Amino acid sequence: MERVISGIRPTGNLHLGNYFGAVKSFVKMQDEYDCMFFIADWHSLTTHPTPENIRNSVKTILSEYLACGIDPDKAPIYVQSDVKQVLELYLYLNMNAYLGELERVTSFKEKVRKQPDNVNAGLLTYPCLMAADILMHKADKVPVGKDQEQNMEMARLFARRFNRIYNVEYFKEPASFHFADKAVKVPGLDGSGKMGKSEGNCLYLCDDEKTVTKKIMRAVTDQGPTQLNQEKPEVIQNLFTLCELLCGKEAADYYNDLYNRMEIRYGDMKKQMAADANKLLAPIREKITAYASDDALLERVMRQGAEAASARAEKTIEEVREIIGFRKI
Ligand code: ADP
Ligand code: TRP
Fold first, then answer.
1. What's this model's pTM, rounded to 2 decimal places?
2. Is the C-beta atom of 317 inside 6 A of ligand 2?
C-alpha cells in the first residue's frame, strides 16, 4: 500500500486554508493509503524560538486533527519531537544540501524579510528537516497546499542526490498530493491571495458561529461589475474561489452568472457562504471542544503515534547508517 505522510506546524489554530489545502486530504486518504500525520513542533522553532506553551499548542492541533476526522486507528498521529531518528536523517541530509540552493528557497527569502533579526540556520535548512520527515517514512504521497511545492521539490532533489552520492536506489521521490487534482490555494478574507495565520485574514475551524458570519460578511469586495461579462478583479475572484470551496461549484456558477449579468449582490452570496461555512464548521467546532478537554485520550494518541512512527524511523535509520558505512548500533 502506498505510504502517505504530512504535518503542520503548531503555531496557532487550524484555519480554512489548512483545512482545504491539507487536512481534508488527510481525512480522505486514511481509508486508501498507509497514512501517518504529525505535528511539526521542531519546525515551529524556526519562527517561534521560545514558544509560550508548545505542549498546549501541540494538543490544540491534535484536537483539531481529530475533530476534522483523522482516525488514529487508521492513521497514527505523532509529534515530530517524539521521533528522534528524524534528527539523524536531518543531519545526513544537511551534509548533502548546498548553501546556494537553500538560500534560493522562496519561503526562506520571505522569512529573511519577515524576521531579519532571527535568520537562524534552522530557517535555512527547513527543507532538509522537512525532507527528513518525508523520506524517513519512504512516503509516496504528501498532501500539502500549493505553498509547499518548493519544499517538496527539495525533498525530491535530496532523495535523488542521496541515491546518486551513495550509489543506491534507496529513497523514492515523494509526490505532492492534492485531492482536487490541482493544488489548492485558499484566499484570505481580506481579498489577498492566501489565507494564512501571519496574514491575519483567517477563518479558523474553532471560530464560533457569530464570528464566522461576521468575518465572511466583512470580506473585502468592490462596488460590483460595471460591464456585462466583465473580467473579475483579484479580490472578487478570490471571493468566488472561497465560495466554490464552501458552497460547491453549482452555487459558485449561479453567482458567476449573476455577476456576468451585473445582477450580483455580494451580500446574498456572502450570506450563503456564511451559512455553508457554519454547516461545515459546527460539528468540527463541537468536536474540537470535546477532544481538547480529554487529555487522557490526547496523550494516548500521541504515545501510539510515537511508537508507530519510531518503529518505522528506526528501520530507515539502520538502513541509512549501513548505506553510508557507519557501525550498526
Ligand atoms: P499558515 O500559512 O497559516 O502558517 P502553514 O504554512 O502552517 O499555514 O500550512 C500548513 C498546511 O496548510 C500546509 O500544507 C499548507 O500548504 C496548507 N495551507 C496553509 N494555508 C493555505 C492556503 N491559504 N491555501 C491552501 N493551503 C494552505
Ligand atoms: N512545511 C510544512 C508547512 O509549513 C510543515 C511540514 C514539515 C511538513 N514537515 C513536513 C508537511 C513533512 C509535509 C511533510 O506546512
1. 0.95
2. no
